[in-house]
Amino acid sequence: MKREIIETSDGSKTIRIIDLDENYHSNHGALQEAEHVFIQNGLKYFQGKTDVEILEVGFGTGLNAFLTAIYGLENCQKISYTGIEAFPVAVEELELLEYQFLKGEKNSSIFSKIHQVEWNSWNEIHPYFRLNKLEEKIQNSLLKANTLDLVYFDAFGPRAQIEMWTTEIFNKLFEAIKPNGFLVTYCAKGQVKRDLKSVGFEIEPLPGPPGKREMTRAWKRL
Asked: What letter does residue 158 receive in the DSSP assignment?
């Protein structure tokens, strides 16, 4: 598929899949979207919790993992992070995105290390962040029940990748999340929310990032 690097409205870059007319991140701001959806309305909920277990569905460029690793270091919070990606981004594209420069020189080495460590094994990025990048499809992933505090659901949207937004996948994630944990996603489509609810999630609509009216947090309540 044809791909190109584009600049988004906040100055950060993303990858556009021309054939699908789909971006890895929002046109309105790749960095702003990631911080708003996954950090501000995801990870920050667990502030003060000693250890946090996170699964990202759609590891992509590694931007969400990068921001999460920085948050863990700045807040002395130990995070175990699993990122699932069936089609890893090429090193050449990652270099063109220049994400290592987004959060200051002191953090640039974190982004580089995230992409240098090997796939399919646990690696320590720094004392508060360990990472396991799994090169596989979520449909084939073996997830243990009641082990995850938080799921970042960051697949391409349903229009481009409908096979990722199924009740079968949502049910698998629901079973893997601990009671009172949750899934967070940029998507707020009615059918997605209905499907999440059908497998047991409690839906909480939230204000979206710049350029988007709404996002979704889906809770696994006791």
From this structure: T
